[in-house]
Amino acid sequence: MISFDKILEEKIGSGIYQIRTISIIGLIEFCDGIEYVFMSILMAILQKEWQLSQTQIATLGSSFLGGVVIGNCICVYITDKIGRKTSFSIFAGLSVMLVYYTSFVESYNELIILRLLFGIVFGTTSPLGYVFITEVAVAKYRGRFAFSLTLMYVAGKAYLIFLCFFFLDDYTNGNWRGLIRFNGIPVLLCFILSIIYLKETIRYYLNKGQYTVAFQEIEENHQIKVKRMDQQLGS
């Protein structure tokens, strides 16, 4: 019996299918890096701007981390139930909504709920990227692709720090609402790209018993691989 890894290596290989998928999920990792750093900056700013106590600040952080735990717990169930692509697009869309809603928030209680929801989105999308890698990348390249996701996460952190020079006066003061709205651009782009270009993984179709669809996807990607090889030989 042939394994799925063997199908990936011999029939599909590495090409535009993997690059497109990794690019899109890498973008959400980039946005996750932005969000993680922004959370720390936001708490410092709001502590001064809204005169929050240490307990209130701790509650904000705890609500986010609690959401991350919930997101991690439901990630596997949701992705197995409705698919990797659908789950990714839904939570990317939710992230867009939460980003822009947060930029208009006026009350502490609202922010607590938004931080919890953001944590759930973060906790779901972060492991989902690595699920995609195990299901679309051939075994010998999975480590490299996983490392590229980590780099995108770090790049997101660096990107936010760079933007802080333009939006913030210092670590505890500045236009944080404008900053978060600007940060919504990458996640909005990720959501749009996931709707248009991201495909459901072949392994998911096989796991759900949708063999006809799976074999069609395998054949389509195989033809792309053959065409690419012919072009390389021709040149």
UniProtKB/TrEMBL annotation:
Say if the entry is tagged with keyword Transport.
Answer: yes
The cross-references to Pfam families, in alphabetical order and at most eight, read: MFS_1
Q: Where are the transmembrane segments?
A: 21-45, 57-79, 86-105, 111-133, 145-168, 180-198
Keywords (alphabetical) are: Membrane, Transmembrane, Transmembrane helix, Transport
What Gene Ontology molecular function terms does this protein carry? Answer: transmembrane transporter activity
Any idea where this protein resides?
A: Membrane
Q: Which InterPro entries match?
A: MFS (IPR011701), MFS_dom (IPR020846)
Do the record's keywords include Transmembrane helix? Answer: yes
> How does this protein lie in the membrane?
Multi-pass membrane protein
Q: What is its main location?
A: membrane
Name by which UniProt lists this protein:
Major facilitator superfamily (MFS) profile domain-containing protein
Lineage of the native species? Eukaryota, Sar, Alveolata, Ciliophora, Intramacronucleata
